[in-house]
Amino acid sequence: MIEKPSYEELEKRIQELERVESNFNRSKGKLIHSYDLMDYIISHARSAIAVFDRDFKYIYVSKRYLTDYKVKEQHVIGKHHYEVFPDIPQKWKDVHQRSLAGEVLRAEEDLYYREDGSIDWTRWECRPWYEYDGSIGGIVIYNEVINERKKIEETLRKSEQLLSTHLLNTPIGAISWDLNFKTVEWNPAAETIFGYTKDEALSKHAAELILPEDMKELVDVIFQDLISEKGGTRSTNENITKGGRRIICDWYNTALKDADGKVIGIASFVSDITERVQANEGLRKSEEKFRTLFHTSPNAITLTSAENGVYIDVNDGFTKMLGYSKEDVIGKTSAELNIWNDFKDRELLASGLKKYGLVDDLEADFKGKNGQIKSGIMSAHLLNIENKNIIFAITRNVTEQRKLESQLQQSQRMESIGTLAGGIAHDFNNILSPIVGYTEMVLLDTPEDSPVRDSLNQVYTSALRAKDLVNQILTFSRQDSSELMLMKMQPIVKEALKLIRSTISTTIEIIQDINPDCGVVKADPTQIHQIVMNLATNAYHAMEETGGELKVSLKEVELGEYDIITPDMTPGVYACLIVADTGVGMDKILTNKIFDPFFTTKEVGKGTGMGLSVVHGIVISMGGTIHVYSEPGKGTQFHVYLPVIKSAAEKPKIQTQVPIQGGTEHLLLVDDEEAILSMEKRMLERLGYQVTSRTSSLEALEAFRSNPDKFDMIITDMAMPNMPGDKLSVELIKIRPDIPVLLCTGFSEAMSVEKAASLGIKGFLLKPIIMKDLAQKIREVLDACKI
To answer: Which pLDDT score is estimated for 605?
Structure first.
């Protein structure tokens, strides 16, 4: 009989059962939680997961499995795997069987061919799962589509291949160093730059390969800076090649790090920039030379924008030439500054640059800041500088050169006209000589009370005036031989002004400013008088109708190297005579012509056109210069400069009246002009001389050679055909060295008193000959020979 439990025992058993149930419920909850957790993990795993029993029926699948394998039927639990995938390849069936047999199979990369023909890269694993008793309960398949990873890997592979190709073919040297600064990578460009092959360079320290001796001590410091990433990222260094050649290299260095960020070495990229550095140095020197030439050139140099014509830069030559400062010019155009005197020149420059890209030797006039005109010869080129079209122009200042050329042309013109005037004077002398000579002789034979004497006096006076005109022509042509003496100009100028005052209208005021301290000049007093009279008369005619002011001043001035007016002048002290009027003035065209002989703006009867040309000739013959300043409506000023002589003035010679003397000597007279020869023969015979005359110099030579002692003196003309007078004189002196010769000439470019004396000629006389002068000169020569 079974013993019934007591109440306490029942209560105890109930509590134990409740405890067991409670534990069961807790275990059940944990199991459910564990299942839910596994479901959550499997459902959301990145891999496709499927769990099968031994019959290969689905026990569990992840959502990713259904998605990746495009399973349309969502409720596959309990279904056979091959039912879901009826066309599964045998390959996979074999895998499944091997796994059910206990193998774990896997593939990191495998191709999966889908029904639609697409292909996926997969990573899978198939392994058995075990029951609680250790038996295989089924298999678990893990599968992951790795298309993106494969794409990344392929991209990385291509990138690495591209990088490798680039490193093999790039002209930039690529070098890798380990932490001991030994070479671990050396591309072909590095071989080219430094001359070492890759095999020669690998495992070598940088100091052994590429560092000059004077840099090896610095390498450790530099390398430590690179490893610690303190500096040296970019640098330019001098290196050395295998052949010992020093080169300049541009380096870019960066630390190499592993996946944990730890520095494992240094990567360097290097370029040989030796040629570039040398080119830059050459360019720097060239630019420095250009800047030096630009700023120091005496020529005006400008850089102008071709786009808008604005000045970019100008040199000192430009500012000196036109008077502008750089600040005045830069940023403005030549049109804004109104630099071109004639805008057509600017158009020529622009069209030439547009058509040819350059313009050479463009002659143009430019306006300076103060309105002064400067002449220049410009050459311009269109250049491309830093992708900008720039006009580079050089202008040579030829202002002074043009002045000199103008003065030279004027001088040559005056010289040509002077030669012409001298020829005219010669012919006029030949005409005038018989008139003067015969009139003199007729006057000597005519009684004082004769009714024709007044007429003869008028003829003789007119002939003498004509003689003065010839002398003016000779003065202009610089063929006269007036006697110069040391003198002070003040008395002559004052005397001339007294004469002018008495002859011109009182509507013209004469103002004198004669400095008594003005020094001594070497001049002919008569010619100084003539200069003042001609200039004053010229001023009077300019003010004759309106009246005005005639101012004459004389002062001493000192001219420096840059003050001289003509190239013939030398720096020094000059006496400056200024004759100024307030008359009508002249323009530039008239000013350039006023010294031409026979040029006049006066009406007929008021001037011959010889006055100013004679003044010019006189001044030049005295070693001086004359300059004119004039503007229409503002009057005219003549400045005459004569060099001051720093010595005491000579006392003027006192002219004494000498009576006409004759003689009885036998003279040989030679002149190719029959009229002159006849007149002179009668004049000499009247004075008591015996005369043998010849019209041919050759006949005269033969007559003398046949009887040289017959003649006491030879009087010969200079200009004769076959043999001129100077050569005839030389031949006569050869025959008889003591024969006195008197040479007469109306014009001789090649003969002077000094030259005549050097040939042995004792006397020199200018035509037209006056009886008193001829008689005096003959006695002077003959009497001197008798001493």
So the answer is: 40
